[in-house]
Amino acid sequence: MYIEQNYESPAIASQLLQDSRITDWSVFRESVTQGLWETPVAQFAEWVRYEAASDSPEVDPDLFDEYHEHYRPGFTLNEGETEAQLQIRANAFDRNKTYQFMTRNVGTWDGNRIGGLLMGGLFDPLNFVPLGGALAKL
């Protein structure tokens, strides 16, 4: 009976999640995805979607509580924000929190993490701007 109680304890599951580390390949894959989302072009596209979503109905601040679909702890409602804009911000908040959770036991200077972030940012067109000047001189 003692063993069964310990296996069913939420504290054990919580400790297991806190101490676990994802594989090196998963760190690299998640870092590439995060690197793609952090490029200026992706940030600009998300900002354009946010601004275009201003015509949906506004969220009532009194109804924005833990029962709201887009409520998250530590996430606040901006004044005059619409439902679609709130959804865009909530998705970005979730994406960042997921990456933080998955890489919580990975070192900041881990090669898979840095390599993934650099590879994700490699596809940003702004990286090719310095090449334009060199190509123009040819």
Structure description:
- This protein is mostly helical and 138 residues long.
- The chain is built from seven helices and no strands.
- It has helices spanning 2-7, 10-19, 24-37, 40-52, 83-102, 111-122, 129-136.
- The radius of gyration is 21 Å and the shape is flat.
- The model has no long low-confidence stretch (mean pLDDT 87).
Helix content: 55-70%
What order do the helices and strands follow? HHHHHHH
Count of extended strands: 0
User: Helix count, per DSSP?
Assistant: 7
Structural class: mainly alpha
Provide the gyration radius in Å: 21 Å
Distance between the termini: 79 Å
Shape verdict: flat
Low-confidence stretches: none
Strand content: under 5%
Task: Draw up the topology in text.
Elements: H1 2-7, H2 10-19, H3 24-37, H4 40-52, H5 83-102, H6 111-122, H7 129-136
Task: Give a nutshell description of this structure.
With 138 residues, the protein is mainly α.
Task: Name some characteristics of this structure.
single chain; 138 residues; mainly alpha
